[in-house]
Amino acid sequence: MDQGIRIDNVGMTYSGLSGQVEALRAVSLAITPGEFICLVGPSGCGKTTLLNIIAGFLTPTCGAVEVNGRRVQGPGPDRGVVFQQYAVFPWLTVRENVAFGLTLGANRLPRAEADAIVDHFIQLVGLGDFEHAYPKELSGGMKQRVAIARSYAVNPAVLLMDEPFGALDAQTRQFMQESLLQILEQERKTVVFVTHGVEEATYLASRVVVMAARPGRIREIIPVEIPYPRLAEIKTTPEFVRIRARIDSVVREEFRKQRDRG
Amino acid sequence: MANASHRAPAASLLYRRQRRRERWEKTGYFMASFGMLLVIWETSRALGIINPLLFPSVGAVLESCVAQLRDGSLQTHMYASFMRVLVSFTIGIVLAVVCGFLIGWFRVVRMLLDPVINFFRSLPPIALIPLMIIFFGIGETSKIVVLSYAAFFPALVVIYQALVSLEPIYIRAGKALGASNLEIFRRIILPQLVPHIITACRVSLGVCWATLVAAELIAAQRGIGAMMVEAQNFFQMPPLVLGILLIGAISLVMDAIVRLIERRATAWQEKMP
Fold it and tell me: Quick one: average pLDDT of B168-175?
């Protein structure tokens, strides 16, 4: 049985030129399987640091993270990561990119089975016509869909997304948000999603975690009690507007505090 | 692009036609450029700008080329030069790839060797020839050592610089998919280095060839450089000029071959238009 993610009293301190920087202090959060968590907050609040700790790219200076009951000790295929800079391998075609994880020793499958999975996810993200194209021929949105399909192919329990749509134009971003929710309707995952956009967070998340800076910590957790599937039209409903305004006011306040101090 | 199935056929046809036109245009200019050189050559002889006794006509150089091809001496010289470059270039590149990885990978090795590498890199290979002749005599060994040295340093620098400037994000992406260290190396680091290794080959081949001619001018019985020294000793101008032309032509051909390989191996890279 999937046990989700447990973040237990995580702290992170970097030593830099200007002395010690406390990027995270005493962050605790329990995420149940299938939840969609958005981390928002002013820059420097440690949201990307927290994501990198869950991914296993960083080791926290104190506390621990457990994913599905196992303590995180490094990156692994149980946690898919989608980066803002896409990180799609440019020397491989779309198909080879999506298949990459399945050709590794850690998750190797019989050829026919792997082929079927790759086909399935290429179709799911709508890149059937582009499977033999190289990434340089794709738009930003398409590259990010390759990255999502590549993560999905190894069937992780958790999807970690670091401002995945941050580099896209407004129209494409909107479309990618809808696509992501559709994909999740078909293949449920636990998602932790870092973003700057309050509207994006409200639209996607089941709970929005607003963080504060210096030191980075959880300021407030705001549930978004709007049932899935969510169509784009819900963004104009009074309920959506109310929740978004509430998150916005907390984020603004944190932003102001940080500006006044810095 | 080999795989253009997702492109509209009309657009791809237009694209191909345009590419073909560009290729023809390039070939035309290439011929015109060398044609110009020949015209200048002949007219300046005819007008007496250069002494016809000191500089042979195009016809005389061609004649010398044909005569030397007939008696097989040109082939012998070219073969000798080619083999020297081929053997030394291979030794130099293989060593450069291996050492490049060690230096790029281990910080201690890099910090320790970087100053020495820069010293040797700025030392022209020709400067080693007298020492090598004392060490190994005037036979093939001294030439192979100097030429391998010439091929080694430029390639080494290109490869380890490429290795330290690799994007860490692809390694992270690989690790998040479950790749082991060996898989990261073989399937993520190596493919990114291929274009740089080819660049290294290009640079090394150029340096190697230039050094070869210098080495043969100093001490060799066979090879294009030796052919030129012999011509100089007997005041035979046509073979001397033929040697110069051959050296230039061969390095152009070698560079074109490496560029062709480069285009094939790096089709995935984004290129400046």
Answer: 95
pTM of the shown model: 0.81
In A, minimum Cα distance to B8 occurs at: A129
The tokens for A240 are: 């959506």
Q: Please list, residue by residue across A103-142, b when 16 or more beta carbons sit within 10 angstroms of its beta carbon and e when fewer do.
A: bbeebeeeeeebeebbeebbebbebeebbbbbbebbebbb
Mean pLDDT, to the nearest integer, of A219-242? 94
* B3 min Cα distance to partner chain A (Å): 7
Nearest beta carbon to residue B268 from set A100, A129, A136: A136
How confident is the prediction for chain B on average, in pLDDT? 88
* Chain B residues with CB-CB distance to A55 below 8 A: 176
Quick: pLDDT tens for A186-211.
Answer: 989 999 999 999 999 999 999 999 99
Q: Which stretches does DSSP call E strand in chain B?
A: none
pLDDT tens-digit series, residues B21-77: 988 999 999 999 999 999 999 998 888 888 888 889 999 999 999 999 999 999 999
Q: Is A132 on the interface with B (CB under 8 A)?
A: yes
To the nearest 10°, the Cα dihedral for A168, A171, A174, A176?
Answer: -60
User: What is the value of ipTM here, to two decimals?
Assistant: 0.91
With contact defined as beta carbons under 8 Å apart, do A40 and A211 qualify? yes
Q: Does A209 touch chain B (CB under 8 A)?
A: no
B173–A81 CB contact, under 8 Å = yes
CA-based nearest residue to B160, from B214, B130, B197: B197
Write down the pLDDT at residue B263: 85
Interface test with A, best of B169, B177, B262 (most A CBs within 10 A): B177
Query: What local confidence, expressed as pLDDT, does residue B1 receive?
Result: 40
Gap between the terminal Cα atoms of chain B: 14
B59 CB-near residues (< 8 Å, 6+ apart): none
- Please give the torsion angle defined by the CA atoms of residues A90, A93, A96 and A101, in that order, rounded to the nearest 10 degrees: 30
> What is the C-alpha separation between A117 and A113, in angstroms, rounded?
6
3-state helix, strand, coil in chain B (%, to 5): 80, 0, 20
